[in-house]
Amino acid sequence: MPNALLVIDVQNDFCPGGALAVPGGDEIVAPINAMMNDFDAVILTQDWHPSGHSSFASSHAGKSPYDVTEMPYGPQVLWPDHCVQGTKGAAFHPDLRTDGDLIIRKGFRNAIDSYSAFFENDQTTPTGLEGYLRTRGIEKLTLVGLATDFCVHFSAVDAARLGFEVTVKMEACRAIDLDGSLSAAETAMRDAGVTLT
Ligand code: VGL
Ligand code: ZN
Questions:
Q1: CA–CA separation, 107 vs 105, rounded Å?
Q2: Which parts of the chain have pLDDT scores under 50?
């Protein structure tokens, strides 16, 4: 069964020193690089926001990073400005192998965030990744990357709902962990039928 490695958001802003640094985010680069040869396809995602994006606290008067606001599509955590298109923060970690098959960008529409590699945060607007995987005959996915409790979590749950066989390799992921979001994400992934290893 053809399989793919989905490498989520291993970008400078999510690594130590970045604008939305995930503790230990850079520790997963070498293990991810080493895994890449074991898959039929390697797909990288890149969080890719316009400046002034609606997921940034700085775009909302009186709000601070990590506040939650109500968007037309539901609650949205507000983040420090991060992964602005074309900046160093949006670039992949310099040691990450980027010789994979596809780079898929997400979060590029001002009015809507996209944690998942499959659907934007309205949970209906597709990114096109499903079609890419299906036309390549890929049925099995392994997810790694940043952050476990946001973009990895939502990508894994969507992939499982779409019928892919999904594994998240936890030792090659790192979490933000806001108010218990990591354990909630683990429960949600397991409930969706995702295998956590
Ligand atoms: C992410 C928060 C905001 C992620 C992206 O990659 O998990 N988290 N944008
Ligand atoms: Zn983002």
A1: 7
A2: none
Residue 46: strand pairing partners: 105
Handedness of CA 76, 175, 194, 116 (dihedral sign): positive
Q: Are strands 165-174 and 195-196 parallel, antiparallel or unpaired?
A: parallel
Instruction: Give the tens place of pLDDT for each residue, 111-146.
Output: 999 999 999 999 999 999 999 999 999 999 999 999
User: What is the C-alpha separation between 195 and 190, in angstroms, rounded?
Assistant: 7
Tell me the C-alpha distance between 2 and 102, whole Å: 16
Which ligand 1 atom sits closest to the C-alpha of 151? 7
Ligand 1 mean position to 62 CA, how many Å?
Answer: 22
Q: Are 153 and 182 in contact (CB under 8 A)?
A: no
Calculate how far, in angstroms, residue 151's C-alpha sits from the geometric centre of ligand 1: 5
> What residues does 119 pair with on adjacent strands?
126
- The pair of three-digit structure tokens given for residue 46, joined into one six-digit string: 């890149």
* CA neighbours closer than 13 Å in the CB half-sphere of residue 131: 5
pTM of the model: 0.97
* Residue 1 pLDDT: 85
Catalytic residues: 9, 106, 151
